[in-house]
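Good morning C.,

I know you're traveling, so I'll keep this short. The sequence:
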Amino acid sequence: MNDLPAGLYDLLHTNELHERLKKSGLLERAVWQSIGPDDFVNYMAQPLAHEIAIYISELISGRKEDTLIETLEKVFQSPGTLNNIIKSMYPNEMETLQQIKPPSPLFLSDMRPDTPLATSALLTGSSRSPALRTQIIKELATCDRADWLVSFIKYAGILPLL
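The tokens, ready to paste straight into the viewer:
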């Protein structure tokens, strides 16, 4: 699973993801969920912005400031540039990856975190945000590995982890 992105769930079902799952032997264990047009916009916008930012960064890397605008102008006047980036992210199906089921002898949980890894979330402990302990339990029930880097001001913040 090393050539797959971290936080597999909530990824748009693109041809690239489909092929990577197939190559890794995980396609048969993939669980997908259909999404509507409103959700599609959100699932497409963030990775698309990320890919465009990487492309621009690679394009201007090592160039002198006085030639940056000229370089960008040349590239973005070509209709194929952005089209190729968008094509690479074109969905295979209008669905997202919900989880990769573990091999049959392992326990499969239907629990899903309220805060997917694909979305940043601040767990404040208020009544309007999900509880840290609950989210950790749900994440651990659906992952095959967990790396933690934590910082707490009070001992009470460590108790849910224990």
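Safe travels,
E.
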